[in-house]
Amino acid sequence: MAFCTKCGSSLADGLAVCLQCGTPTGPVVMAAGPTAVDATPAAAGLQENVAGLLCYALGWLTGIIFLLIDKRPFVRFHAAQSVVVFGALTLLRIVVTYGLMDGTFGWHFGLLALWSMISMLISLLTLILWILLMVTAFQGKMFQVPIAAPIAKNIGGSTKI
């Protein structure tokens, strides 16, 4: 007879939990043969839709992380799309910031106003794409940003998506 490792009470054969304290006792296999079912919980890990959402959580940074650690096509596509979309928006912001600077005197008032308007538009676009891509990935959908999706498919290594 087996005993519970937490409370020490005796366990009947075939029980998955202790009747006294509720502690799991281990996997239980139902009837032997081809119809046997393992009653243990599913393997630990993120579901595809949650991993897809997390690819966009910190922009291109989490995209790179998931691109390196996850091999599922759905997650790799979203990770690659995150790298392409948010990497391009980051580069665009850098180009706009340093491209409008005057080399000798810094900022001119007119260029500062132009920079702030362009910067706000880039920020708004980033926020909208960030929310849209996270929501659609969590829903399990394959929303493809028009220019970035073909590049992401090449980076992610899957042309089936």
Write up this protein.
With 161 residues, this protein is mainly α. It has 2 domains: 1-38, no CATH class; 48-156, no CATH class. It is built from 5 helices and 2 strands, in the order ββααααα. The protein has helices at 48-55, 60-69, 73-99, 109-138, 148-156; strands at 2-3, 10-11. A two-stranded antiparallel sheet has the order 1-2. A hairpin with a 6-residue loop joins β1 (2-3) and β2 (10-11). α3 (73-99) packs antiparallel against α4. The chain is elongated and about 85 Å long. Residues 28-44 have low confidence and may be disordered.
Please give a handful of descriptors for the protein shown.
two-stranded antiparallel sheet; 2 strands; mainly alpha; 2% strand; 5 helices; 2 domains; 161 residues; elongated
